[in-house]
Amino acid sequence: MSPDGSARFEGGGAVLECSLVPWDTEIFGFPVAQITRIDIHEGGDPSEVLADFERWCASHVARLISCRLDHEKLRESMALEATGFRFVEMVYGPRFDAFMEIATPRYGVHLSDATPADVSGIERIAYSAFTTGRFLLDDRLAPELSRRRYATWVRTSFESDRHTVLKAEVDSQLVGFLIAEHRPDSSVYWHLTAIAPEWQGMGMGTSVWQATLLRHRSDGASYVETTISGHNLPIINLYARLGFSFRSAQMTFHRLRDPDTGSGR
């Protein structure tokens, strides 16, 4: 086990890696952990590594554990479900590289780097704009926790050297934001994107996304990637219309663990 609490367990033809999630622990008010990798070879017996993992959870008093698996890892998903994990959502990884095919935005969107003075307005959007995040979909968790998590995500992104917070305005009104990471290979990853609730359903998302893609094109980006919930059909349709391709899918699992008994629910 490493000093930061992460661990790796191996045996019986299986491997499991896990770590604590301090940012979610702070928001939720109880220890949150994640399985970052689980592989079970054909014919393997994961009971040993799962027992080791359970002891690790007990030592850290972990209450919520999450895991994302490639959609083809059914052997691993069934092993998790046998220990109390529940499927929550499917997520997709859209990718865009058709920079010469971006249409002109319908709305006159002004896109710029957000400043500390914009934090409260962007936090307001982040707090209220999302309805399909995995913590909101899991009705065992209080919705307020998920909304607070999105707002906190905005604030910590302002403090990160890796992230750029972009604000989208129309006629000087804040209509949305994006949190982007420019990676060493010239690609861009969108960590969090949202349109203010009062501007949703009007085609504003299309214009903001187009304006952002045009900015990335002028910056020399090679491609753009992001992650979206399979429950968010409007945004899936939006990305399809914009020319994104869908190249991957992952299953999200949660386990709510009783720290006293170790049982899941």
Secondary structure elements and pairings:
Blueprint: E1 7-11, E2 14-20, H1 22-28, E3 32-40, H2 47-59, E4 64-70, H3 74-81, E5 86-96, E6 110-113, H4 119-129, H5 134-137, H6 143-158, E7 163-170, E8 173-182, E9 188-195, H7 204-218, E10 224-226, E11 228-229, H8 233-242, E12 245-256
Parallel strand pairs: 3-4, 9-10
Antiparallel strand pairs: 1-2, 2-3, 4-12, 5-10, 5-11, 5-12, 6-7, 7-8, 8-9
Helix pairs in contact: 4-6
What does this structure look like?
- The protein is α+β, with helices and mostly antiparallel strands.
- It folds into two domains: 7-83, no CATH class; 95-249, Aminopeptidase, CATH 3.40.630.30.
- Helix content is 32%, strand content 32%.
- It has eight helices and twelve strands.
- Strands 1, 2, 3, 4, 5, 6, 7, 8, 9, 10, 11 and 12 form a twelve-stranded mixed beta sheet that branches.
- The model has no long low-confidence stretch (mean pLDDT 94).
Tell me about the largest β-sheet: 12 strands, mixed
Secondary structure category: alpha+beta
Total count of helical runs of at least 4 residues: 8
Q: What is the CATH superfamily label of the largest domain?
A: Gcn5-related N-acetyltransferase (GNAT)
Under the CATH scheme, the architecture of the largest domain is 3-Layer(aba) Sandwich
The value of Rg in angstroms is: 20 Å
The CATH topology annotation of the largest domain reads as Aminopeptidase
Order of helices and strands: EEHEHEHEEHHHEEEHEEHE
Identify the CATH class of the largest domain.
Answer: Alpha Beta
Mean pLDDT: 94
Number of strands: 12
Number of domains: 2
Identify low-pLDDT runs.
none
What percentage of the residues does DSSP assign to strands (E)? 25-35%
Shape descriptor reads: globular
Helix content bin: 25-40%
Q: State the end-to-end distance.
A: 27 Å
